Amino acid sequence: MRYKYKLYPSDEMENSSLNHYVFCQLKEDRLVGSFAVQPPIEGRFFLKIFAKPERDMNEGQDSTSLQNVCTLLMECTRARKYIEPLPINELPWGPTQTFYDYKLRLHNQTGPVIVTWGGRRRLVMESNETMLISYTIYDADGMEMDTRSIVSRDDSGNKITFTISPPRVGTFKLMIFGMPKPKQKGKWRLPLLASFMV
Fold it and tell me: What are the chain's domains?
């Protein structure tokens, strides 16, 4: 399924003002949608979830084409102090269906969160064929960052190794795009393969 969501205070009109505090991922062979919600303050909130089977989605469709499948009323009796908002991600975190369609594999990573402690972290991806790959990285506010100083890439055979060196403590969004190398030259729009929270 493709999921989208809106988190907002229960006394407000429907909006997505608190989406920064929801972490959505697909689990169990992408058949289970998982939503981790951490409101920044005490109170009552609505989590409204929209969904649609991926096979019914057309490329470039907006979220209005997803159906509202449930609305949950949540009560936060005690909020964590100093909670950091997460980067906004329109799709569930982790590999997309395209990643699996291209028969890609991750070697040293399970789940959509890459944790580094005071240094760098490698992400190794393997494919059965030569891939065209690009990537971007964003900070928690959604500002695109200069990837040259943060992410480097090394190709060895069918293995692609990304070395990630965050510039500071914080949360970042790494988006990897790619497709098998086409036979003809030209400009190609690379589909999203995966989004990771760093």
Answer: 2-76 (no CATH), 94-197 (2.60.40.10)
In the numeric block, which tokens belong to residue 53? 């089977």
Is the whole-model pTM more than 0.85? Answer: yes
Residues 6+ apart with CB under 8 A from 85: 20, 21, 40, 140
- The pLDDT tens digits of the residues spanning 28-48 come to 888 899 999 999 999 999 999
Q: Which two structure tokens, joined as six digits, stand for 18?
A: 């608190």
Spatial contact of 76 and 43, defined as CB atoms under 8 Å apart: yes
Would you state the structure tokens that stand for residue 156, as one six-digit string?
């060895």
DSSP at 29? T
Q: Percent helix, strand and coil across the chain, each rounded to 5?
A: 10, 45, 45
Using the structure block, give the residue that is written with the tokens 């909006």: 15
Burial letters for 83-112: b for 16+ Cβ neighbours within 10 Å, e otherwise?
eeebbebebbbbbbebbeebebebeebeeb
Residue 185 tokens read as: 């030259």
Nearest C-alpha neighbor of 179 from the set 164, 189, 166? 189
Q: How far is CA 189 from CA 54, 63, 178, 192, in A?
A: 19, 21, 9, 10
